[in-house]
Amino acid sequence: MANDFKVITRDVAPATAGSPETLYTVQSSRTIVILGLTLANVHTAQVTGTVQLVSTTTQTSQTQNTTAHIVKDIPVPTGATVEIMSGNKIIGNAGDIIKIDCSVADKLSVTMSYMEIS
Predict the structure, then answer these.
(1) What is d(CA 25, CA 28) in angstroms, rounded to the nearest whole number?
(2) Quick one: average pLDDT of 33-45?
């Protein structure tokens, strides 16, 4: 198995407030470990940010996964960056989606670092 360290970024997100934007979709035959996820406020006022994990995978003998909030409506002060992961890790299975939303369109800059296992 190969482990590749990668990063994905968005200069601003989402295009429309209240409509979560896809940041990343785990590729088929892959698993990822999210190592870090930051939200930076590029607006002139405080905003709130939401990060969702959209999953429909099912683990053996378990209930099917659904959409879960990693954070919901977290305040991001003007000019500040919020580290979502704080040393934790989240696993993403093939087809899982990370989505970003903000109280104001195009006002969060997002960086996600992850390890892809193939």
Answers:
(1) 9
(2) 97
- CA pair distance 75, 110, nearest whole angstrom: 15
Closest CA to 76 of 99, 52, 50: 50
Global confidence as pTM: 0.92
Residue 23 is part of a domain; what is its CATH number? 2.60.120.1330
Query: Is the distance from CB of 9 to CB of 69 less than 8 angstroms?
Result: no
Give the chain's domain count.
Answer: 1
Neighbours of 6 (CB within 10 A): 12
Burial 93-102 (b: 16+ CB within 10 A, else e): eeebbbbbbb
Terminal CA-CA length for the chain: 6
Output the CA–CA distances (angstroms, integers) from residue 22 to 14, 96, 99, 115, in the order listed. Answer: 9, 10, 4, 18
